Amino acid sequence: MVPFKVYTQRDLDKIEPLQKLSEAMRFEMKVVSSVLPFRVNQYVIDELIDWDNVPADPMFQLTFPQRGMLSAEHYDTIAKLIQDGADKATLAAAVNEVRQALNPHPADQMEMNMPVDDEGNRLDGIQHKYRETVLFFPSQGQTCHAYCTFCFRWAQFVGDKELRIAASEASTLHDYLKEHTEVTDLLFTGGDPMVMKTKHLAAYLEPLLEPEFDHIQTIRIGTKALTFWPHRFLGAEDAGELIDLLTRMVRAGKHVAVMGHYNHWKEMDTDAARAAIRAIRSTGAVIRAQGPLIAHINDDPDVWAKMWKMQVKLGIIPYYMFVERDTGARGYFEVPLDRAWEIYREAMQQVSGLARTARGPSMSASPGKVEVQGVTEINGEKVFVLRFIQGRNPDWIQRPFFAKYNPDATWLHHLEPAFGEEKFFFEDEYEAIRDERIDAAQA
User: Fold this and answer.
1) 402-429 pLDDT, tens per residue?
2) 239-251 vs 271-281: helix axis angle to the nearest 10?
3) What whole-number distance in Å separates Cα of residue 335 and Cα of residue 325?
4) How far apart are CA 376 and CA 385, in angstroms?
5) Measured torsion, CA atoms of residues 168, 169, 175, 177, in degrees rounded to the nearest 10
6) Does the pLDDT value for residue 343 go beyond 80?
7) What is the pTM of this model?
8) 55: cis peptide before it, omega within 30°?
9) For 185-195, how does the pLDDT look when each residue is reduced to its tens digit (9 = 90+)?
10) Cα–Cα distance list, 376 to 322, 360, 367, 385 (Å)
11) Domain boundaries, the chain
12) Nearest 5°: CA angle at 158, between 8 and 266?
């Protein structure tokens, strides 16, 4: 069995390659990781990061905190407290204040996506934003083998129960799915469900093979394990049991999709990563690749083109290019929508049709997934061409709409309707849905 060795903020001084960096840079890491979660493992350190190219190396940027991930004001506040030897309570209060300013749950996740039972109690660990798809956050899967520095779910990992989304009972999920036969797709997410022992994952999955769950056609498992710990599918303690579980689910008639989170082609460029991909594909499960476009890591069309080509070669289906969400260290990672579309377009021009299955650049905003389809000029006005890939109201899907061109926009709320319109076509209905959901949640 391959050993799994992990490092967190308290272990920064124990990571040998970091000792080659300046004391100032190591202090910056300590400051930033006091606010944003940090977790890395020996596989990432040894196999993925090019330490001769630090700090520019994309895998280093993906996993290790950088000073620019906090605003100057927030950084200076926390740095001074640490330098002055502030007590734990004072530091914790300041850290919490900074975290609250970082929009810990974007797109109204807590207010609008979490259903309630017949008595008005919130069903923790379940999100049901789109008609066909339910997201489930198993409590045993609310960590990862390593943390991405850009993670939009960073609030799951900072130890604050008020910010965490998780469910501890499988029955909560199963009871909800029995009542909602409109649901066809179930997405296990987190954190990373692949940190769970196979027996715990099986407790959630195997009951779905009963006839009462025939409406659940697709089981998706969102994971970064193919990058951060491919041995989960190879030499880990219960890797064989995991492969057997996936095989059973497929043979029983479920479509199993492993939603691999990929940000760079380097993540697939190790022997272990490729062996893990082969192991999953041997079960009959499909691997679909998704990830955000992020500055300092993959804001280059050549990187995306090479990644998509490699994915197709390895039997992975390119699925999504996301826009970096408006949370956490977004100021460090965000890319203007105009540039995001250019990168997507230039990358698509380099690949064959089999790699053009990736949709994007897509914003997972509160109304739905909004794709930037291009920039054009209509009647003398420069505009963004947008459409819903997914929406709170299915009627919005595939309807094109237009926004005034804004070269600095990085998210949907930065955009204004084009052609003199006061509102986008969906806004009134969205506000009504939002009011209804919030009233129900607060009842």
Assistant:
1) 999 999 999 999 999 999 999 999 999 9
2) 30
3) 10
4) 7
5) 50
6) yes
7) 0.93
8) yes
9) 999 998 899 99
10) 21, 17, 24, 7
11) 6-100
12) 55
